[in-house]
Specification:
alpha/beta, Rossmann fold, 7-stranded parallel beta sheet, binds nicotinamide-adenine-dinucleotide
């Protein structure tokens, strides 16, 4: 039980990576809030974890909405008795050549990935500082926090930006016992990636099998997708780490796709 009695908010936790992290935190003894735009799915995930609602709750939240983030965070603190861990994970993907990207799609991408990270961090840090208990903040970066791929201009830009935010939070949070780190997964088979396979096949004029083999997994050491369990385990480790030796860091979890 590495996270016994901690309280965590995980954004985007109604699906994919966020859900796997929330489930892993719960197994490790944490009380968890499933924060997601999809309130119905968030409620299902929370109910599956704990039908009584004592150790898991759903928070319908658009992470780009300042008022929704502040009130949702306050509701979690009130109901679950504090806040020790934030996982800023909610995200979407839109792929297109840069010359075809609309300003509206560019803004939507940066709003979800960067405004969302800022707003949830601010709400969490205010509480963590005031409580005197400190805390851990994790950002869901990507291998695209470290390198670029074609068709992903706003995603790559936003994921690189999270490194800067985490490093700043590490510095400002240190005096209050707050650590901040970034997890950088390779491709994980979630709805976000499943949607991209046919889209990339169309853009590049190749088959879906070729997208997986020659684009997504080509540089991995074993030809394997990163799994939900791989990412969740890294999140438990970073969230539970006991000192500021690990802060302002980024951990690449990608089956060797990217090494540094
Ligand atoms: P997913 O589509 O399975 O889940 C994303 C969740 O975020 C959904 O439940 C969705 O409702 C929620 N969401 C979207 N917009 C939101 C908003 N404005 N407010 C609140 N919730 C919102 O995707 P996933 O693959 O699990 O991705 C989660 C994170 O992991 C994203 O930040 C993504 O960029 C990152 N990531 C994914 C991969 C991958 O290969 N799947 C790799 C690296 C990083």
């Amino acid at each position: 039980m590495q996270l016994k009695d901690r309280v965590a908010i995980v954004t985007g936790a109604a699906s994919g990576i966020g859900r796997a992290i929330a489930e892993a935190f719960h197994r490790e003894g944490a009380r968890v809030a499933i924060a997601d735009l999809a309130g119905d799915r968030a409620a299902e995930v929370a109910a599956a974890l704990d039908p009584s609602g004592a150790t898991a709750m759903a928070v319908p939240m658009d992470v780009t909405d300042e008022a929704a983030v502040d009130s949702g965070t306050a509701a979690v603190i009130e109901r679950l008795g504090g806040l020790d861990i934030l996982v800023s994970n909610a995200g979407i993907q839109i792929v297109a050549p840069l010359v075809d990207f609309t300003l509206a799609d560019w803004r939507r991408m940066l709003a979800i990935h960067l405004d969302g990270a800022f707003l949830t961090t601010r709400a969490a840090m205010r509480h963590m500082q005031a409580s005197g208990r400190g805390g851990a903040i994790l950002y869901m970066g990507s291998v695209h926090s470290k390198t670029a791929s074609k068709l992903k201009a706003p995603y790559v830009t936003a994921k690189h930006g999270l490194l800067g935010l985490a490093r700043t939070v590490a510095k400002e949070g240190a005096a209050h016992g707050i650590r901040a780190n970034v997890i950088c997964p390779g491709f994980v088979l979630t709805p976000l990636v499943e949607k991209q396979i046919p889209e990339q096949a169309k853009e590049f004029g190749i088959s879906e099998e070729e997208v997986v083999k020659t684009i997504m997994l080509k540089e991995t050491v074993d030809g394997e997708f990163t799994t939900l369990a791989d990412v969740a385990e890294a999140a438990v480790f970073l969230a539970g780490f006991g000192s500021a030796a690990l802060t302002g860091q980024s951990l690449i979890v990608s089956h060797g796709w990217h090494m540094e």
